Amino acid sequence: MNTILLVEDDAVIANGIKNHLVAWGYEVVLAQEFHDILPLFTQTAPLLVLLDISLPFYGGYHWCGEIRKRSQVPIIFLSSVADNMNIIMAMNMGADDFIPKPFDLNVLTAKIQAVMRRTYDFKEEPSVLEHGGVLLNLGTACLEFGGAKSELTKNDFRILEILMERAGHVVSREDIMERLWESDSFIDDNTLTVNVTRLRKKLEDIGLHEFILTKKRLGYIVP
Question: Of 135, 5, 134, 25, which Cα lies nearest the Cα of 78?
């Protein structure tokens, strides 16, 4: 399970982050008591820690140092105190990233995915593809952009998955159809055109215009 420990004193922010990440397939454990984070950290054994700097009793820097004595688990700082000195201090304390408040939850998700891939790529497959602020959840087949979401059909999902995996490169129609043949539905060239047209309409409905381009006689590309 992709468990994240969230140490955030503001309940509104904490619950907003939790609800968003749970929708993307993570298990999120919220710290409720701040006088000692270590027992919860040990009990949870998270794959990643989201840690605010300004906390009751002891600040985030203190707990980052304590965690680093015991573990190399990735730590991302969240803070409204985002001057260069604090960012440098966070990195020197062993943080893997620093996200200033206020932040977009989509950006947070993408950064979590990036840190997770860097840390666990030898044993974890990414559960989200990200390109240009567009997030494709590989577990739920849900597409998100700018706060808007779209539920994809199986064929929509497979088409978009292969195009985002190879973003910046033309993918031939034959390669896409081979990916679709892996499922239990047969698809021919004409059906692929219909599927791509339908997928583009879904993308436009959430504000993504020209996300998929046609390269004549070659295939499709997500630039």
Answer: 5
Strand order in the sheet with 128-131: 128-131, 134-137, 142-145, 148-151
* Cross-strand pairs, 30: 6
> In the chain, which residues have pLDDT < 50?
122-124, 184
180 and 91 inside one domain: no
The count of structural domains within the chain is 2
Whether 99 and 195 map to the same domain: the answer is: no
**pLDDT digits over 17-52, tens only?**
999 999 888 999 999 888 998 999 988 889 999 999
Q: Structural domain of residue 31, as residue ranges?
A: 3-120
Cα torsion 194, 196, 200, 201 to 10°: value is 20
Cα separation, 151 vs 37, whole angstroms = 38
Claim to verify: residue 20 and residue 110 sit in the same structural domain:
yes
The answer to pTM > 0.70 is no
Domain with residue 38: its CATH number is 3.40.50.2300
Instruction: Give the residue from 33, 31, 25 showing the smallest Cα distance to 44.
Output: 31
3-state class percentages of the chain: helix first, strand second, coil last, to nearest 5: 40, 20, 35
